[in-house]
Specification:
heterodimer, A: about 400 residues, 15 helices, about 75% helix, globular, B: about 325 residues, two-stranded antiparallel sheet
Chain lengths: ~400, ~325
């Protein structure tokens, strides 16, 4: 038994696919209408900007409500930290029961309000549990205790945000527990890479396992996809020379101002380039967008890493060469794919988040206009600093 | 769930006949993998890196290759990019159109960015515009706005608008969530208000006349943010705060109306967010409660209030989808 109406999620996926076919005129309008009747969706219509707004302001209201409760109860509970924990747990459990009634109506699904309420409930329960522990508890025990609670929440809600926190907690647990053993620092990069590989494999396996029951598969699709993204990112970072060297420097006691070279540098240099290249190979072989995107980003990171330690060119020349290379690769790719090659094409498809790209392009072009206009000292404007009231609220 | 899985399920339940299923299976299995947006993103980032690299390069003096060679090279690249874009320029229309080459838009972008870099350098090194700093920004602003309409290029429009607001002294850096200006000076705030209100008015007018209506979004997004921030700046800093409060209320109302009409909810989010910040500021500043619980109560009530506002918009969206379906 899960929080959201699984049948609704299943029906929604079917109807969305049918609408896609209808737009491509592969099924008729009558067929689409028949399918919409056969697979009714009770969820309310949604829009990402409204979701963001409802998410933020639900959090505002919840914080107010929590503080309102805290005022009288805090005075009564003035006895210690653990009673504070009990209070948080109690509020968390009561709001959890209320939330379930609310979700039980089956009209909300990833709608901003429900996501915010789930986050609040989980945050209350997790922090309540942690407050019950004595002050001296090491960090990794906090992680070990929180992780099952978070995983339970992911199982119940299938929520992406909670999944993100759970994965972050998982890595924090690995990281902090490795620091407690003497060989931990040395083995850290390898452990992180191995764990990431296993995490990715586990997420893939679970995805395959859930295929025969599409209702479950859809329920966890986003969380599992996020897990794969994060595991692959951590795998790149775990093998990256810059990360390994700088982290090693930071963890030294006392920490030197410049991180010294690490032993096994050659191995990490190889991994820095090899892992993104391997991602590229898998991405082209399996036509997997996640691998292709991460391969490109990983290669850019590798080049930046190389330039951090090998100062051969001034910044300006490096930017010019880097930009030129990227532009030429893209131009070659676009020309090469004019006629489809081995199942790849340059024709846009429906899956591409077009609006997202347009917005991102607009923001970056505005940014670089500002940067170029204010590059030379004579063109500066204005005086006082003003860290815009409320800009953060709206983006 | 894969399309094929859905297809088989629908076929099993008798909702899709045999021959149609075979066609669909065939199409789905031969569907090509599109790299369209990936390649364009790489090209786009490449153009940005290239132009900022060249922009930095002209401020560094190189003895061996010669400083003027670099300048001439950049000017030549700028001219060639522009010439390429011009050669592939579509015939002018009031509707949305497209460059005839997949690279035309990027060439224009590169040309404009390089032009800015060269112009900045001309002022820095040779003081071409003297003390008339306004000219340095208004010139590219007008040029880019003209090019944006001629080439139908939203990126150039964004650049032109950015240059235009920086003409009245507002720096916009969206990636840093940052708008900088001297909001303690009332003339700057007023000119930012005037310009952004003017831009919004022009945008809505052009939208009504169906002159490049797809530009409206860019206009409203950029000028709208400047307008709201300037109103908040006025509300926070000046004696006549209530005038700015009224202005803020009117702006919120207008943006809400537009969002409802066009179902473009980013503008409702802006109205709700900026409006909330302004309203809360007034409450916190001018109402004094003794009991702190009154404050918390305010946040509960106001938070729920804004959520209800967004819910009302969502209902509007639902109704719209239903009436669309009914039409089909």
């Amino acid at each position: 038994m899960k929080a959201y109406n699984q049948e609704g999620i299943y029906n929604q996926a079917v109807v969305m696919q049918a609408e896609r076919w209808c737009r491509q005129q592969l099924i008729t309008n009558e067929q689409l209408t028949a399918l919409q009747l056969a697979f009714p969706v009770k969820f309310r219509a949604t829009n990402s900007f409204l979701d963001i707004g409802m998410f933020i302001f639900t959090l505002v209201a919840c914080s107010g409500a929590y503080a309102l409760f805290m005022l009288p109860v805090g005075a009564l509970l003035n006895t210690g930290v653990s009673s504070f924990g009990v209070f948080k747990l109690a509020v968390g459990i009561v709001s959890w029961l209320l939330l379930n009634r609310y979700l039980g109506e089956g009209t909300l699904y990833h709608n901003g309000i429900d996501t915010a309420l789930i986050s609040v409930v989980v945050a209350l329960v997790v922090s309540g549990v942690n407050f019950l522990l004595p002050d001296t508890t090491p960090f990794w025990i906090h992680c070990t205790i929180s992780l099952p609670v978070l995983l339970l929440a992911v199982w119940y809600y299938g929520d992406t945000l909670i999944a993100f926190v759970a994965i972050a907690t998982f890595y924090a647990l690995i990281f902090s527990s490795m620091l407690t053993v003497s060989w931990g620092k040395l083995a850290m990069p390898f452990i992180i890479m191995a764990v990431s590989g296993l995490l990715y494999a586990a997420a893939r396996l679970l995805e395959k396992r859930l295929e025969p029951t599409p209702a479950d598969g859809l329920y966890y699709a986003d969380a599992l996809s996020l897990t794969q993204w994060m595991a692959l990112i951590m795998l790149v970072l775990g093998g990256n020379y810059y990360i390994v060297r700088e982290l090693n420097g930071l963890l030294m006691n006392p920490s030197p101002s410049e991180a010294p070279p690490i032993s096994g540098g050659g191995l990490f240099w190889t991994l820095t380039f090899l892992i993104p290249l391997a991602y590229g190979y898998v991405g082209f072989r399996d036509k997997n967008r996640m691998f292709l995107v991460l391969s490109t980003l990983g290669l850019v990171l590798a080049v930046v890493t190389l330039r951090t330690y090998v100062h051969v060119l001034p910044n300006s020349v490096a930017l010019v060469l880097g930009g030129l290379t990227m532009a030429l690769v893209a131009i070659w790719g676009i020309r090469f794919l004019r006629t489809p090659q081995r199942g790849f094409t340059d024709v846009p498809d429906e899956d591409s988040p077009k609006q997202f790209f347009l917005n991102a392009e607009m923001l970056t072009v505005i940014q670089s206009t500002s940067n170029t206009m204010h590059q030379s000292p004579h063109l500066k404007f204005g005086g006082g600093d003003f860290d815009g009231g409320g800009a953060g609220q709206t983006y | 769930m894969s399309p094929t899985a859905i297809l088989n399920m629908l076929h099993r339940r008798g909702l899709i006949p045999d021959n149609q299923r075979d066609i669909l299976v065939n199409i789905e299995s031969r569907r090509l993998f599109s790299l369209h947006w990936e390649l364009r993103s790489i090209l786009y980032v490449g153009v940005l890196l290239l132009s900022s690299g060249l922009g930095l390069l002209i401020y560094e003096n190189y003895e061996q290759i010669g400083h003027h060679t670099i300048l001439a090279g950049i000017a030549l690249l700028c001219a060639v990019s522009f010439w390429f874009a011009w050669r592939n320029c579509p015939p002018f229309t009031l509707a949305q159109t497209q460059s005839r080459s997949p690279f035309g838009d990027y060439a224009l972008l590169l040309a404009c960015l390089l032009f800015l870099a060269l112009e900045g350098y001309a002022q820095y090194e040779y003081n071409v515009f003297g003390q008339r700093y306004g000219l340095v920004t208004i010139l590219p602003a007008l040029l880019f706005l003209g090019l944006a309409y001629r080439f139908d290029h939203r990126g150039t429009l964004g650049m032109g608008l950015t240059a235009l607001v920086s003409w009245v002294g507002v720096t916009v850096r969206p990636l840093d969530l940052y708008i900088k200006t001297n909001f303690f000076s009332e003339p700057v705030v007023l000119s930012a208000l005037l310009l952004s209100a003017l831009l919004i008015g022009i945008a809505l007018l052009l939208d009504r006349q169906r002159v490049k209506p797809h530009f409206t979004y860019t206009y409203l997004l950029l000028a709208g943010n400047v307008l709201f921030i300037a109103l908040l700046g006025g509300l926070f800093n000046f004696e006549t705060w209530w005038l700015y409060a009224i202005g803020l209320a009117v702006a919120c109302w207008l943006f809400d109306r537009y969002a409802r009409r066009e179902l473009s909810f980013l503008f409702a989010l802006m109205a709700g967010g900026y409006g909330y910040v302004g309203f809360t500021y007034i409450i916190l500043r001018y109402l004094t409660f003794d009991d702190p619980s009154a404050w918390f109560f305010y946040f509960v009530i106001s938070g729920i209030g804004i959520v209800l506002y967004f819910i009302s918009l969502r209902k509007k969206l639902t109704r719209n989808i239903q009436s669309e379906r009914a039409k089909e």
